[in-house]
Write a structure and sequence with these properties.
Largest sheet: none
Order of helices and strands: HHHHHHHHHHHHHH
Radius of gyration: 23 Å
Length: about 290
């Protein structure tokens, strides 16, 4: 697992250097985008991949905590993740209003990724004994951070792209989101499987029960019905395996917003455009008449 994460970070570092002949759907046409702008655009794309990863990281694995550790039903676990959904809205509003008022995004990204780094790390503190107040409050921090970043990354990205390339840039932005979502499930899923396999061997005495949490079956077994189908002490052992494995899932998650936070410190503050100079839109009738005359 460490080698996988290390290779991923190494690839991101290598990708930071500007390409001499960029090929893309990103609007980075060869010879038209200066190297510094390529770096600016590349950093924001990598930051957005990370945000997209973390959204799925939390939304796919926080319900696992509620169902397999807190023993909530699927319906109740959906209600229990509402704080992280609802609080992202005011976070996005704060980021959007601040960006519109000051026209500066770098500080907003630093604050947002700081909240995300601290927030996903704090989720590792959740346990079987966590109270309602604890799991509600621990969802607030990453939610505010995600809201602030999501609402301000696209304007910052578009500031480094020419207006004629805006459509291609937004299409690329959508692709990057989908790409990040995939890794937001794959990476924590791999972490969960690795550690559940390890902890099941250490904790669970029944070999038949242990097999349900090994060989990649941990995610499928993370339901209340599965856990409650066993009597004590096996039930407590299963809960312990999921609790410890999910702690590792959220601790590993710290690395990604921390990387994005580092990138945000070296962002270039590109001035946001206040007027549009584009060929799109309706042609003015008076101008057309005067041109014909």
């Amino acid at each position: 697992m460490r080698s996988i994460i290390g290779r991923g970070i190494w690839i991101l570092v290598l990708a930071e250097r500007p390409a001499s002949h960029p090929r893309n759907v990103l609007g980075l046409k060869s010879g038209t985008t200066p190297p510094l702008r390529q770096l600016h655009i590349g950093r924001h794309l990598r930051e957005y991949i990370i945000v997209s990863m973390l959204n799925y990281w939390i939304f796919f694995f926080l319900p696992i905590y509620f169902q397999a550790v807190q023993l909530s039903s699927p319906t109740r676990s959906g209600v229990q993740i509402l704080p992280i959904t609802l609080i992202a809205v005011p976070g996005a509003a704060i980021g959007g209003v601040a960006l519109a008022k000051w026209g500066k995004y770098k500080l907003l990204h630093i604050i947002g990724f700081s909240f995300l780094t601290a927030g996903i790390g704090s989720l590792a503190a959740l346990s079987a004994e966590s109270s309602t107040a604890e799991w509600v409050c621990l969802q607030i921090v990453p939610s505010i951070g995600a809201g602030m970043v999501l609402d301000t990354l696209l304007p910052a990205f578009q500031a480094g792209v020419g207006e004629k390339d805006s459509a291609a840039a937004v299409a690329s932005w959508s692709f990057i989101r989908s790409f990040g979502n995939i890794w937001g499930v794959a990476v924590p899923g791999a972490v969960l499987n690795v550690y559940s396999d390890q902890y099941a061997t250490e904790v669970i005495s029944d070999a038949a029960v242990r097999s349900h949490l090994q060989n990649g079956d941990a995610y499928a077994s993370a339901t209340r019905d599965f856990v409650l189908s066993f009597a004590e002490p096996t039930r407590g052992q299963i809960i312990n395996v999921f609790e410890r494995s999910l702690t590792r899932v959220f601790l590993v998650g710290i690395a990604f917003p921390a990387l994005a936070l580092t990138l945000s410190f070296i962002e270039r503050e590109v001035k946001l455009r206040e007027t549009l100079d584009t060929e799109y839109g309706l042609e003015d009738k008076e101008e057309k008449t005067s041109d014909e005359a």
